[in-house]
Amino acid sequence: MRLILLGPPGAGKGTQAKRLKEKFNIPQVSTGDILRDAIKDKTELGNKAKEYMDEGRLVPDDIVVGLIKQRIVESDCKKGFILDGFPRNMAQAVQLSETLEKMSQNIDSVVEIEVNAKMLIDRLTGRMTCSSCGAMFHEKNHPPKVSGICDSCGSNDLYKRPDDNKETIMKRFEVYEQETAPLKGFYRKMGILKTTGGDGTLDDVFSRVCGLVT
Ligand code: ADP
Ligand code: ZN
After folding, report:
1. Backbone phi, then psi, for 152, in 5-degree steps?
2. Which residue stretches of the chain have pLDDT < 70?
3. Which CATH architecture has domain 2-116+178-213?
4. Cβ of 53 below 6 Å from ligand 1
């Protein structure tokens, strides 16, 4: 099964992708995570990407498309994958389609998670991630049981993403509306767009998403 998760920053794509990965035993391919790892490792790619990410702008297409092309030919992607944060504009979507066509593959479903703007800002400004295992928390809505300690793995390294500040969040929304939202029409025409609300508990959203893709 090959899936794309589509939705504005904070819609819960990453969280749902992690659950889908467990359920269907296929990898989550997140361009945001790949880029953040490169920044952490201080690679040339990371240094370049950081300038864009800190401002909430898209990293250039040649970089992210290159990353995706490399990633989806790895052996763990043979059974399928969940794309989270890619494609993010028309050029990326077209290049993805071309790449998959050459591999005689196709996307089964594009799941759009819809959330209202007010909720998104609240979610993003309070978001914390465990740097060891990737578990996600929220200062108010879903704090760790012991402050500063990850419930899942016990690490004390919970961090706030540098782009989760109000100014950069507003820029990311704007980029989403202008560049990413048009992909809905693109995939609707292909007959594979499926939309669900991102409201309710994580379990609610997950069961709706599963209902759409199976
Ligand atoms: P969110 O969806 O919450 O904004 P992501 O982790 O998906 O978070 O993306 C964070 C940042 O990484 C983006 O603002 C952008 O700068 C960069 N990025 C991630 N994926 C892409 C992509 N497909 N194309 C260009 N830039 C990307
Ligand atoms: Zn952890």
Report:
1. -80, -40
2. none
3. 3-Layer(aba) Sandwich (3.40)
4. yes
